[in-house]
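Subject: design request, 454 residues
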């Protein structure tokens, strides 16, 4: 079931490896969106705003968990590309120890301080309790998200991008069914949507665990593989923590922006929530290309094929740029209609118009977002986690400047330009750093004959 990305046509490999991931990520977004769809349709706009108001804090906390898991899997991909299966297994076991520690810390911290954070974010009073009821359950289930993201990341590091897709499909269907069950007949409110998500994530993670045990003999651990190794833990932390912090830093900017949005009222919160959900779905192919490049670069770095890395990055950038144009057209023409999945009831025409305006502005800047996805993940795969984290700081600064300096004066119009400002700021760092890293690697590795031909 493993897939070697160090040989063969890069374009074909990237496309076939990323396609199952695109579908899988869409399903993941779908079962995340299912909460908002069912909540918006059955509980109303205020309940939708409550769930949406927790998006940035959820991204800050769970984004750190997700990003760290992705970073932990990069040394696994590098060891696999180098053909060192023994070292690869040791990386996996030590990554498990790190993931367990992070799960405990995150769960305890969020149980203690979530209410205070929502208060600091100026969450509107009419949606506060629904927001808290939803997000506290999600945070209690942090371990289920860590389980799935770590195991699916390991599968992708070994070149298997299809299996996580199958398990996400199962989780997506289960989540939708549980959403309706918990919210409609059981009357559990927004907390019911959160319980549905946690249970679905747990199922997908357990399916990954069983599959790895049965189908991946190279991951059958021996007793000595489970011994903690400080040198490996240090390497894993060097790759994982910056990637997790990059997600969290990006989310801090989103929290600051969300705080400013909350001050504009519940209807604006609902509009931004619906627009954000639509945008997340539309941009999934670009994000998936980035995740593909982390594995691709990791394996090829392990094999010492720097020229092949450059060719793959250029190919994926072109693919992403073509899609970003399509994505812009899609949200511009259909964004308002798609947002109706989340918004129901009378007198919502004003909210829908705000959704369309938000999506149009953001869509015009999708090429800049594509650059972030491709080059940030590629740098991670090449072992340069700190610059990728620093790009998160640039995004934080971009969003924060808009929130602090412009939203108070220009209101919703300024909110629409917050994401583009963050994307451009991050690109100003990522592109120069990429060329510096590639130049350094070209001087460190000899050019292989097959690379010279490529």
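Subject: RE: design request

Done. Sequence follows.
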């Amino acid at each position: 079931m493993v897939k070697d990305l160090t040989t063969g046509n890069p374009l074909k490999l990237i496309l076939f490896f990323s396609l199952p991931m695109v579908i899988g990520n869409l399903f993941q977004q779908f079962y995340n969106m299912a909460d908002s769809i069912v909540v918006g349709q059955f509980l109303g706009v205020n309940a939708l705003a409550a769930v949406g108001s927790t998006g940035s804090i959820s991204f800050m906390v769970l984004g750190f968990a997700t990003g760290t898991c992705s970073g932990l899997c990069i040394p696994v991909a590098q060891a696999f590309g180098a053909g060192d299966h023994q070292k690869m297994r040791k990386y996996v076991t030590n990554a498990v120890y790190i993931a367990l520690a992070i799960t405990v810390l995150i769960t305890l911290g969020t149980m203690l301080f979530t209410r205070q954070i929502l208060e600091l974010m100026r969450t509107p009073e009419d949606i506060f309790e629904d927001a808290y009821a939803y997000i506290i359950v999600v945070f209690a289930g942090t371990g289920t998200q860590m389980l799935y993201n770590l195991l699916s990341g390991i599968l992708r590091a070994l070149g298997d991008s299809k299996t996580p897709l199958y398990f996400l499909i199962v989780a997506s269907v289960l989540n939708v069914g549980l959403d309706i069950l918990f919210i409609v007949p059981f009357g559990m409110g927004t907390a019911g949507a959160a319980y549905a998500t946690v249970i679905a994530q747990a199922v997908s993670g357990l399916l990954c665990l069983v599959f790895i045990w049965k189908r991946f003999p190279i991951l059958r651990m021996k007793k000595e593989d489970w011994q903690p190794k400080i040198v490996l833990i240090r390497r894993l932390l060097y790759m994982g923590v910056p990637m997790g912090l990059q997600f969290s830093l990006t989310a801090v900017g989103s929290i600051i922006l969300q705080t400013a949005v909350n001050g504009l009222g519940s209807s604006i919160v609902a509009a931004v929530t619906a627009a954000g959900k639509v945008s997340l779905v539309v941009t999934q192919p670009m994000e998936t290309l980035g995740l593909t490049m982390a594995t691709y670069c990791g394996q090829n770095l392990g094999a010492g094929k720097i020229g092949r890395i450059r060719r793959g990055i250029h190919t994926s950038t072109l693919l992403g740029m073509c899609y970003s144009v399509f994505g812009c057209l899609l949200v511009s023409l259909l964004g308002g209609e798609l947002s109706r999945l989340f918004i129901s009831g009378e007198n919502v025409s004003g909210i829908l118009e705000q959704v369309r305006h938000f999506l149009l502005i953001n869509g015009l800047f999708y090429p800049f977002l594509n650059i972030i996805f491709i080059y940030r993940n590629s740098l991670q795969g090449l072992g340069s986690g700190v610059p990728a984290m620093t790009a998160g700081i640039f995004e934080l600064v971009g969003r924060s400047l808009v929130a602090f300096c412009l939203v108070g004066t220009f209101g919703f119009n300024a909110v629409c330009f917050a994401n583009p400002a963050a994307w451009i700021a991050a690109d100003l760092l990522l592109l120069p750093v990429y060329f510096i890293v590639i130049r350094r690697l070209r001087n460190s590795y000899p050019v292989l004959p097959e690379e010279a031909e490529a």
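DSSP finds 19 helices and no strands in the chain.
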